[in-house]
Amino acid sequence: MQRLFTLLFIIIISAPLVADNSQIIEAIKRVDFLQAEFLLANENVSEDNLEIWRQLGYSYKFNDEMAKAIACYEKIFSFDKEDYDAQLALARLYFFSQQYDLSQKYFELILANDLTDVEAYLGLARLEKAKDNFSESVAFYNLSLKYLPKHLPTLFELAETYIYSDQLDEAIKTYNAVLKIDDSWSEAWSGIGKIYWWQDKPFLAIQNYKKAIQLDPGNDEIIQEFKNIKNSTNWIVSVKYSGQTEIEEGYETTSFNQKYALSKLITDNFSLNANSFWQYAQKDENDFITEKYFDSSYLKSNYKIFKNNEINFTLGGSISDSTLTLIDGGWKFQTNWKKINLTNNINFGNEYFYHWKKVRKNYLNEKINIKYKKFNFSSAYQFGKVEKNWIWNEYTQRENKFLNYNFALNYQVWNLPIIKIGSSYRFMDYQYNSSLYYSPTDRKIFGLTGSLYYSYKRSYIYLGGSANLDNYDEFETNFDSELGMDYHKFSFSLSFSNFKNNYYESRAFSLIIGGNF
Fold it and tell me: Of 74, 105, 146, 516, which sits most exposed with the smallest number of CB within 10 A?
């Protein structure tokens, strides 16, 4: 009914222009609006009824009847191919109908007549953005701004396009251009803050969000984002209690473990992580039981030195064994290119890796992770040497060189729940065999992996596993599960894991409690 009244109004005010259209006028007199619409739809466009066609097309658009609106404006365009209003209306209508080629045709037709037309540049910019052609979209936005440099809606759209194309620094510059024109826009301040948050710069983000909240104190979305960022700068505490049983040929070890972790972002470029591990274990070896207390604590510092680069240093020690347990330094590089995310970690150091036999090693390792859409590729490479210790059956002491590496590829096949399947390959090789620690020679392991993750409100469940076969026809399985829940600033989870092959089995239960303050 509203549409009919709108049509009646349009036709009545346009009546002087269609005085010769007697049938349409008679239909209006009979208050037969549908008949009037029908009669006009079968008329050809003329100077007398041109504006009625235009208003009818606008009415169709107003009521979301895009196909009818297009038909009206196409008739106007066929009558007068220089009609700017028809060209612009058709370009926009085809865009809204996702007929991008036809939309582009009319925008380009406008520019063929006027290279300074801002509306055409804006239309092409939005069209290219809709097609994920972000570089072309940016170019058209900048052409629009060339002729209308202080048009704030265009600047906001340009900033959004830079974000979509992962040009975050350019997006910040664009938001700053908005603020130079008018610094009262809370959306620009919060936009800059959000980008700094994405760039792991929460302290800079907080400064910008504070200004946004001052300008728009009633904006709940901005306030919630501010709270989330502020929470990320709090102390993060976690406690893990676990029980583990390891069964190997000739011995069985049962242990109770406690791990305490504390981390804090000090500045946007510097953070500290402290961990303390405590273990009580009983080892039953040939019916002889050995009890052992072991502890190891370390402090790790992370420094962002310049864009996408971070260095870290870790120092750890044990009171029970009166020794340094870890000295480690490393470099991390992370970047995004289009839809590809790359992370590369390189570390080197010395580790006290098997406290039962007081064995330590020097190492250099590199980890690479590449994400592309639903694919995830990871690899790890480590080489070094175990410091001089017993080899073979404890007749000789020597350094033991080693090389380990692995590759894994998985693909997300389902979104809810998140289901991934994949495959893996591992290689392990030591120069000598030792009875003190696991030291295989030329072992190659091929595996199939799968995982499921499902979250509902504040809870989640994770299931993962793998089946592996090596070049000696030894079969092994691995299974992990975790059930967790978030409650305000705290999280709780229970987990179980099991690893088994013909010679070794490990089972572990864990309770993890975490939160930030």
Answer: 146
Report the candidate in 430, 259, 289, 283 with the shortest Cα–Cα distance to residue 356: 283
Torsion of CA 91, 96, 99, 100, to 10 degrees: 60
Closest of 365, 361, 359, 296 to residue 329, by C-alpha: 365
For 52-61, the CB contacts below 8 A with 24+ separation are 52/10, 52/11, 52/14, 52/17, 52/18, 54/85, 54/86, 55/10, 55/11, 55/14, 56/7, 56/10, 57/89, 58/10, 58/89, 59/3, 59/6, 59/7, 59/10, 61/89, 61/93
SS3 (DSSP) at 45? coil
251's tokens: 């011995």
d(CA 170, CA 428): 46
Q: Which residues pair with 45 in a beta bridge?
A: none
* Strand-pair category, 504-516 with 475-487: unpaired
Can you tell me the distance from the alpha carbon of 377 to that of 333, in angstroms, rounded to the nearest whole number?
16
Bridge-partner residues for 317, per DSSP? 297, 324
The phi and psi torsions of 410 (rounded to 5 degrees) equal -135, 160
Separation between Cα atoms, residue 71 and residue 56, nearest integer Å: 10
Amino acid in the structure at residue 264? K
pLDDT tens digit at each of 517 positions of the chain: 444 444 444 444 444 444 345 555 454 344 343 554 665 656 677 777 777 778 778 877 877 889 988 988 998 999 899 999 999 999 999 999 999 999 999 999 999 999 999 999 999 999 999 999 999 999 999 999 999 999 999 999 999 999 998 899 999 999 999 999 999 999 999 999 999 999 889 999 999 999 999 999 999 999 999 999 998 899 999 999 999 999 988 889 999 999 999 999 999 999 999 999 999 999 998 888 999 999 999 999 999 998 889 999 999 999 999 999 999 999 999 988 878 999 999 999 999 999 999 999 999 999 999 999 999 999 999 999 999 999 987 789 999 999 999 999 999 999 989 999 999 999 999 999 998 999 999 999 999 999 999 999 899 999 999 999 999 999 999 999 999 998 877 899 999 999 999 889 999 999 999 988 7
Fill in the amino acid letter for 182: D
Catalogue all structural domains in the chain, each as residue range(s) with its CATH number: 2-189 (1.25.40.10), 190-233 (no CATH), 236-516 (2.40.160)
Q: Are 390 and 359 in contact (CB under 8 A)?
A: no
- CA 479 to CA 140: how far, in whole Å? 53
